[in-house]
Amino acid sequence: MRTTSRTAALAAATITTLTLAACTGPEPENTASTTPAEEATTVTVVTHDSFNVPDEVLASFEAESGLQVEFVAPGDAGTLVNQLVLTKDAPLGDVVYGIDNTFATRAVNEGVLAPYTSSAAAAEDAAAYAVPGAEDVLTAIDFSDVCLNYDLTYFESAGVPAPTSLTDLTDPAYAGLVSVTNPATSSPGLAFLLATIGELGDDWAQWWADMTANGLRVTASWSDTYYTDFSAPNYGGDYPIVLSYASSPPYEVIDGEPTTASMLDGCFRQVEYAGVLEGAEHPEAAQQVVDWMLSDDFQAGLPENMYVYPVSSSVEVPAEWAAFAPLAEEPASVDPAEIDTRRDEWIDAWTTIVLG
Amino acid sequence: MSPTAAQHSDGLTVADLVVTYPGRPPVEAVRGVSLTIAPGETVALLGPSGCGKSSLLGAVVGTIAPAAGNITWGDEELTRTPVHRRGFGMVFQDGQLFPHMDVARNIAFGLRMAGVDRDERDRHVKELLALVGLEGLGARAVGELSGGQRQRVALARSLAPRPRLLALDEPLSSLDAELRRRLAVEVREILRAAGTTALLVTHDPAEAETMATRVRRMADGKLI
Amino acid sequence: MTSRAATVRTRRSALSLLRWWAVAAAPLVFLGLFFLFPVGSVLARGLLEDADAGAALAVLAEPRTRSAIATTLGLALAGTLGSLALGLPAAWALGRFAWRGRALMRAALTTPFVLPTIVVAAAFSALFSRSGVLGSWGLDQTPAAIVLALVFFNVSVVVRIVGGAWESLPPGRALAARTLGASRARAFAEVTLPSLAPALASAAAVVFLFCTTSFALVLILGGSRVNTIETEIYIQVNQFLDLRAASVLALVQVVIVAAALAISARAGRARGLTSSVGRLRAPRPLERWGVAGALLPAVLLLLAPLTALVERSLRVSGGHGFAHYAALFTTPERGVLPVAVWQAAVNSLVTAAVAMLIAGVVALFVMSLIARRSRRGALLEAIAMLPLGVSAVVVGLGLLLTLNRSVLGIDLRASWWLVPIAQAIVALPLMLRMLVPAARAIEPRLRDAAATLGAPPWRVALHVDAALLRPTAAASLAFAFAIALGEFGATAFVARPDRPTLTTAIARLLSRPGPENVGLAFAASVMLALIVASVMLISERWRRFEGSGL
Asked: In this predicted complex, what is the ipTM?
């Protein structure tokens, strides 16, 4: 009995503490910046954890539109669509940014998206990247080419020429030189698997088997392959050929000289889309956000802020990108509908071939 | 809260006290004990371990709820009174000194609870330290005390708030024989000097004889 | 007469039961809302929608699943044994003797526990790579590499839990055995070890559960070749959108948690320790070598990856320097992060402080209810310990599924509060593992002693329980704070991109090319390690009274 009254006393004390904590805890919603007189509509953007937009670009959009923009990012790019599918009965927000073409069809088929076709100036450019059959729900915003990168300094002295095609790499001369990521755990890994399927057709499985026999290294995520394995001067790992993006080499320029380059054969063009979410609370505001993402202001910042190419042809990419980040001329293409139906099967097959 | 000497005139009455511990079947540790202690008297309950004497003591002090029976002080019914309002002190078998307080703070604890101000507390603690023969050891950590010193502190601590009844639960049993004999005499003198009414539980007849003014034997949950 | 008393007592115990549940309501509502309900709704979606017991069982029968379960148990067992093997000698050295630098060593050994796994995994894989310092060991992408990393993370748990118990063990006990003719070894085996059993069991259970849910370590160091239940859940949810398989696997995790806790409870049933207030003595000359030797393996395992980590943070184009540390205080030009890393650190500190408060309040409630053993207390304890063994993916997904609509009128959608709440849930079991043994070690008769001296119940709680628990409570709060700082798994689901914490900032920096980004990520990790070590060092100062527990 004494124990319980002791408990009660303790409980009373803790309740007080809790209340105090609740009252004095930090109030993160910036109450200062909103004027209490007019209640601004808050539009919620669901995105991935790499999303980044400069404060001033966001602020000018908020000022122009009278909207207040909030962001939620429940994970990385690879998990975004699945999370939207799981929460479609009570959407996480009004508009999504960051669905890519490896998962786009799943999002469309699951009815996550509401129709909207932007009439922004850059919409015409964006249309070139549209997912067939989903033109009315997904608006392309940016893209990047997933390509193998290689260490220029290594191939200067190795006595082997830098590889130029996927089929080069099965040559014993390149044994133990290549590091890629697992398509089941890494979004560029999946993109690269699709690149080999698009490029090599039915021979893709044999190519991976040959690569495995040739000492292919597989890691779980892009940062393991790029930061730990890459032999480029900035990292000093053991593998001169690694999976990355066509846009990566500009970041490895030392004293004006590139130290890495992309192998532009066997690339997959990963396109990121925005769309209004089905069941959005503020669909019109969501549409404004999609338009904003096609605006010059937003598009121009994409290379610097998210390391991707803008779809809009009216903005310029940074000079170093123009110099060191050429795009693949003919990226491999795989029909998004086929990706959706066969993705799991391909990943399973890949796992059996490569990881055994 | 601290009872004044005037209240000491009444004495303890225990009537038909029963203590049971839950179990299958329940264990009857104390089976209908009646007992009175006059003011200033020291009664010893003597008996082998497991005879129920400690349970009886616990029920008197209030740390154990009796299943039946009554405990009164004079006319004051105390059976349902919580421990801290009975005005009874207790010396535990192994002292139970507060390990996070030094000797002086241990002794002063009851005075703090009674709301005695600091100066008077300090003065009183000094007196009690002298009474138990530990002058100057107030700042000692209790972990650094010997067994005999610990029990002296425990005694001083329980006497500090001037309890109207002091319960002593095998207060010397953890000490060696020689020390026990010496301390038994000392405790008796201290209790006499303070005029405290006391109920002592022990299994040692010699200790009971030395310390108590009256000895009652207990066996199998009953007084004999 | 007796029967009337019996009725009174029944009524009284009914009242106390009622009170127990009334107090239990607070932690139960918290855990229910932010853990049980979210996890339950994932399981419900996975198992009840198109309920098909056959299909669910088929998941279990798949070789892939069975091998994941076997791998999980094998890795966790090896990780636990390794942590005990390295942690026990260190616990002895830290818990038995007083020496200069002991507090610093304790703090240092705790640091790995809360470092972001992605960064430590990167440091380890650099060590094991072909040209790495330990490349010749041939451990790259092997289970052995994972086990070493698991030990690196979890040695601190053993050191803290067992070392704390060792400190409060009266040295007299082993000495008594030796005077009875026992050799040093026998005295250890027959007296010291059994006395440490509850702490050992507790530490082993925590480490085991941590190992079973380790995610980034297994994925990165195993090169995605090693599959555990946790990585399997991740892949099933994020790649294959197979909630059924994920739910079955999550249930397997719950079974493992329950089994681990039951075994630990059984092993730890030996008489608990009562706190003693002995003074630690300085080691004698010969013992100094013992202390050094006992600490060496743990320190080596600590230093190897930490050195690699620091080296990477100093690596700049063409040499080494402090450029990345300077960059911590400027907003990155090329925007990977919307704010400077130091601002992310401030976000982290604020969030972790709130998480610590939340976890502390809930832990106090739970502790006060389960300190006295009872069946209902055991149930509550089990529920509170569950977050230790349930996949962060499932918890995070659950929070996503349930809290994107208003629950009981509270709309936490996109709320900043979700981050500290998620962290608090992760920290709670560990706080309890420290607090509960300490609370149980309080000698109940001390409370009686206080009451006979006139202390009403609230003053007993204040002057006895609270006073005796203060050092442990302070240490456990510091630990909770550090855990919250380093938490990533569940945080990643509820974090907001415009308000990164240190761990989410590090993850983002590591997702973009460029030496500045990776350098900054490592510098930020070193900063995180330093913050954590400082917090731990400060908490050492609160341990003036060496109670049992941590």
From this structure: 0.89
